[in-house]
Amino acid sequence: MKLYPLFADLAGLPVLVVGGGSIARRKVEALLGADAQVTVGAPRLDEGLARMVEEGRVAWRCSEFAPTWLDGMWLAIAATDDRSINAAVAAAANQRRVLVNVVDDAELSRFHVPAVVDRSPLVVAISTAGAAPALARRVRETLEQVLDHALGALVALAQRHRHRIVRRRADLADRRAFYDWLHDGPVLSLLRRAQPQQAERILLDALHGDQAAPQAGSVTLVGAGPGHPGLLTLQALRVLNEADVILHDQLVGTEILAMARRDAERIDVGKRCGGRQVPQEQIHRLMLAHAREGRRVVRLKGGDPFVFGRGGEELAFLRRHGVACDVVPGITAAIACAAFAGIPLTHRDHAQSICLLTAHGKDATDTLDARMLARPRQTLAIYMGVERAEALTAQLLAHGRAADTPVAIIENGTLPQQRVITGTLDELPRLIRQHAVTTPALLIIGEVAAFAAEHAWSGEQYAEPEHAVSLPPAKVA
């Protein structure tokens, strides 16, 4: 079946939907979104449609279908579970030259409702001519990942200045180059950062010049998450596919790097505990040099850039040197690793607060307030704590944290080789030695760590049988 693609302006036009169930309701909602004047026809309506009628948003014909319902209509949709009724609607619509769609029945339909990616006013429609709607939805899911949500604002901005663009860029090739610059340059980047006034000012400045402004370099600080490629955010994926240069830590796995733009330059800048280290000053110089060459730079970090990732220092450095910089947050290890280990970081019966700590860096554990950290009913999530576990354990025990406080050691959290080792606080240093724990590893100390023994669902689990860790009975509300 060869279809003619068409986007219909239904604003203010009468449209009929036959059917009163959930499928009809979804069709009505989409039509209302297009500002159509919708009439629904059915003896009975589900709760959602009935509410629309009560609110005056939809007219209702409360009876069995009659062909006269189609008089004056521009469009019709048959959404009943009775094929004979749907066929009658289609026949009556064809007789009146009204375009009709019969849900899940390509043979009876004169038009098909596509799967839609909505970045209004940019809209992408996908159709399989009714042959495989589930596959159309899969294509839509793929496009949802690729198409930036800021594209809608970009199209709206270009629409607002279309006459100026046509007048100032009369040559078609010149105009195409200008639109490419809008997409690839600072305008889209500013819209992505919710700065529409600056984006519009740059567009107008470029229009008043003889040619599009030269590409300005930029840096995006991107959190790659804890390592599992499925936990990379959609925005991070989009930015990686726009990057010219990627400065990545060793903790960023090959599966995530493989999702980036194929021809992007990749630079390993180390930054793995216990591994090769590239001085932070050198990373600063690399970001600055590539940005000043007009390149789009991604500084790709494990976890989140602003959680023990020195992203704040990098952002401040770039700001001082006048480099455009934005941030794409990542899922930090404490949240992701705990979830993969079946540990709720907070629990109304066992943990009222979370404390994220690092045992690596300036002064390490010496500056920690051990008295505060030793309080019960709070969860400690300790990054890079394997090497200093003995000192940390001694401090917590000395300040009153119970020796039988549950602990969990999560090595390579979220990755296929994840290990979860559970026990008690007084056994923590021994557990690390006995199981030869290596980095990256996250330590969780607190009552909720006991959940891992029963609820860990990913990777291998190792519980100490001689120390059966159990939670106190939950309070009854």
TrEMBL record:
Record's keyword annotation contains Methyltransferase: yes
Organism: Dyella jiangningensis
Protein name in UniProt: Uroporphyrinogen-III C-methyltransferase
Residue ranges constituting the Tetrapyrrole methylase domain according to the UniProt record: 219-428
Alphabetical list of NCBIfam families matching this protein: cobA_cysG_Cterm, cysG_Nterm, PRK06136.1, PRK10637.1
Protein family according to the UniProt entry: Belongs to the precorrin methyltransferase family.
Catalytic reaction equation(s): precorrin-2 + NAD(+) = sirohydrochlorin + NADH + 2 H(+)
Key words, A-Z: Cobalamin biosynthesis, Lyase, Methyltransferase, Multifunctional enzyme, NAD, Oxidoreductase, Porphyrin biosynthesis, S-adenosyl-L-methionine, Transferase
Active site: D249 (proton acceptor), K271 (proton donor)
InterPro entries in UniProt: 4pyrrol_Mease (IPR000878), 4pyrrol_Methylase_sf (IPR035996), 4pyrrole_Mease_sub1 (IPR014777), 4pyrrole_Mease_sub2 (IPR014776), CobA/CysG_C (IPR006366), NAD(P)-bd_dom_sf (IPR036291), Siro_Cobalamin_biosynth (IPR050161), Sirohaem_synt_dimer_dom_sf (IPR037115)
Keyword NAD among record annotations: yes
Residue intervals of the Siroheme synthase central domain: 120-145
Cross-referenced CDD domains: SUMT
